[in-house]
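Reminder to self: tokens first, then the designed residues, so the page reads top to bottom the way the pipeline ran.
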């Protein structure tokens, strides 16, 4: 069990990976849930641009603006004492290194974030390098990229053939080389995600990426069984078997730490 009161930092996440300790990540968008997650021992609270969908009711994450992300990051960071606050850079706020630095600086300064997340691989490496040079820790995001949904044409598994798997591995290595501290892998085959997690030195957090990642993330509303008509394969409803929301969050943290979530049933 990790030290309950010591603030989680980027170097601490690296030590958790080195020590074989699984990292529990969940999204939150407000102070009340941030408090519940923090008390339950969630290591990283992601203020995801999924807020465009689960909070704002839009059909994609593109709805979340930088001001929205700053507002919700501030709500979360005020409440969380231990967890690291990871904030998404929203769509078209990091298309150049300068734009990315301006946007990220606002998430750190006004939103209270300790790390920012951006989507994409090799094409984003100059941006990652620039942010890291300004001492702003970065998390990459590969696999299914929700900000590219109009180009992808739908939410489905990525990197299913040898060629796209090889590109994904190269993208992951490039982000690490550019200085990323963390990587989210979304909706990719479990075997490939396991290989990437073993290859990279930085921690890899999976969502629909199997059990062999260094940690797991889910959207809060999804793991409470709210907000979707058909449950995505990688989601488990933790509220169904728990008597309460704090109980569901605690069950998720325990399942991630012990390796009981995800199972093959939640993987590709
Ligand atoms: O925005 C978000 O919540 C995310 C997770 C799905 C990883 O990026």
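Designed residues (268 positions):
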């Amino acid at each position: 069990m990790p030290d309950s009161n010591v603030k989680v930092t980027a170097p601490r996440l690296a030590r958790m990976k080195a020590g074989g300790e699984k990292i529990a990540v969940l999204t939150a968008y407000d102070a009340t849930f941030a408090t519940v997650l923090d008390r339950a021992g969630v290591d990283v609270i992601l203020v995801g641009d999924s807020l465009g969908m689960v909070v704002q009711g839009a059909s994609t994450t593109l709805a979340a603006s930088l001001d929205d992300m700053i507002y919700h990051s501030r709500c979360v960071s005020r409440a969380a004492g231990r967890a690291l606050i990871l904030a998404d850079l929203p769509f078209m706020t990091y298309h150049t290194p300068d734009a990315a630095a301006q946007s990220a600086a606002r998430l750190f300064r006004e939103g209270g974030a300790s790390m920012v997340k951006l989507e994409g691989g090799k094409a984003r490496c100059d941006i990652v390098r620039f942010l890291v040079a300004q001492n702003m820790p970065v998390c990459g995001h590969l696999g299914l990229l929700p900000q590219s949904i109009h180009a992808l044409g739908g939410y489905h598994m990525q990197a299913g053939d040898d060629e796209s798997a090889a590109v994904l591995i190269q993208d992951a290595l490039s982000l690490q080389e550019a200085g990323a501290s963390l990587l989210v892998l979304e909706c990719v085959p479990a075997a490939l995600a396991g290989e990437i997690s073993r290859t990279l030195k930085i921690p890899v957090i999976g969502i629909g990426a199997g059990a062999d990642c260094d940690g797991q993330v889910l959207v809060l509303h999804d793991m409470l069984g709210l907000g979707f008509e058909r449950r995505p394969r990688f989601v488990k409803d933790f509220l169904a078997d728990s008597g309460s929301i704090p109980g569901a969050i605690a069950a998720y943290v325990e399942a991630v730490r012990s390796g009981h979530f995800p199972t093959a049933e939640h993987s590709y």
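The two ends are 29 Å apart (CA to CA).
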